[in-house]
Amino acid sequence: MIRPVYTYLLLISAIFLLLTGCEGGLEPPPPEPEPVGAISGKVFYTGEWPPSSEFRELIFVPLPFTPTDFSQVLGEFIRGTLRSSDRLQTFVDSEEFFVGELENGVYVYNIIANQFGSDIFKDWRPLGVYKENGGLITINGDTVEVTIFVDFDNLPPFPPE
């Protein structure tokens, strides 16, 4: 026969183990973020559009670095490390864009880029730069919504200051 003292000790020990051994019950650990995310956005245009001959390409490009020239950007595209939106329309008031399969991280220079001439290595310019949140877009396995404004009467400098 078990003595009452041992019964109480056994009961107290069992309660102690239950209280100290369970942090979240049978809950699974929180999921890890997806390894990639996306940017979904809208661009608004103001001012007079340049001639249509100056629009060989018009895209949204999120960059994890601040470029000093566009050949740097093209080099990253060729290596397959950068993504961009599909081609954007010209001569519209606004348009939505999307870039998927972006690696998690911080994108520091996010632009509407325009190839205005025939030289694919040199004839590029930013038309609008994302400015909210200090210009930074952080991807962490999610889709981030952004808005960019292009003012054709006041284009941003390149390289950026």
Overview of this structure, please?
By secondary structure, the protein is an alpha+beta fold. The protein has a single domain, classed as Sandwich (Immunoglobulin-like), CATH 2.60.40. Helix content is 17%, strand content 35%. The strands form three sheets. The protein has a three-stranded mixed sheet, with no helix packed on it. A three-stranded antiparallel sheet has the order 2-5-6, with no helix packed on it. Strands 4-7 form a two-stranded antiparallel ribbon. The radius of gyration is 27 Å and the shape is elongated.
Write the layout of secondary structure elements.
Elements: H1 4-21, E1 36-46, E2 57-63, H2 70-79, E3 94-103, E4 105-107, E5 109-115, E6 124-129, E7 137-139, E8 143-151
Parallel strand pairs: 1-8
Antiparallel strand pairs: 1-3, 2-5, 4-7, 5-6
What is the total domain count? 1
Annotation field: number of helices: 2
Q: Quaternary arrangement of the chains shown?
A: single chain
Unreliable stretches:
none
What is the H/E order? HEEHEEEEEE
List keywords for this structure.
161 residues, alpha+beta, Immunoglobulin-like, three-stranded mixed β-sheet, three-stranded antiparallel β-sheet, 2 helices, elongated
